[in-house]
Amino acid sequence: MGNADIIELSNGQKVVLINDIIFKGRQKIEWENVEKYLKSYLGSIYKIIETDDLIYLGSDLPDEYTGSNYTKKLKGTLAKAKANAVQGLPKMIEISSGKRFRENLKQKHSKNAEYGWYRYDTKFALPIYDEDNKTDNYNIFNATLLIRHSHDGKMYLYDLVNIKKETGKPLEL
Question: How far apart are alpha carbons 73 and 95 in whole angstroms?
Fold first, then answer.
């Protein structure tokens, strides 16, 4: 799974640099393949450097990540970005920051998010290929990790939402 690295920008921000686009396709992402990839993470635990929070990757992650209402609305670049972001999820968890809390308001989550929801900001970058299929530079994306605080007291990654491509000049290495 070593297809991502953490880099630091000149402004001190950390970005997870994803080294390859493995989920291709301009029109349709094969979400079943993304879900299969996510299943390889199940049972893993990652620590957020800024807060020391432990984030678990549970059995509900693959289905929610690939089948959420948010995911179903994504098209084009943002759908491709979310699909390929799975390669860097462990490192995206590690570098996340800006912890925010929200109470759980939905009955359907009364057990799996009994202690509410947390959101963390994260960044990742995906390669842009030239006509020779070589990496030319990278597009940077901002995103939010949605974490549920379960009845067992643990915090679980639930989804990656609010994906936005940074405008301006792409990242050159």
Answer: 27
Could you give the number of structural domains in the chain?
A: 1
The Cα–Cα gap between 88 and 79 comes to: 15
Residue 172 in any domain: the answer is no
Residue-range definition of the domain harbouring residue 24: 4-165
Domain assignment present for residue 24? The answer is yes
| pTM over the 0.90 mark | yes
Q: What is the pLDDT of residues 58-113, one digit of tens each?
A: 999 999 999 999 999 999 999 999 999 999 999 999 999 999 999 887 777 777 88
Task: Let me know if residue 173 belongs to a domain.
Answer: no
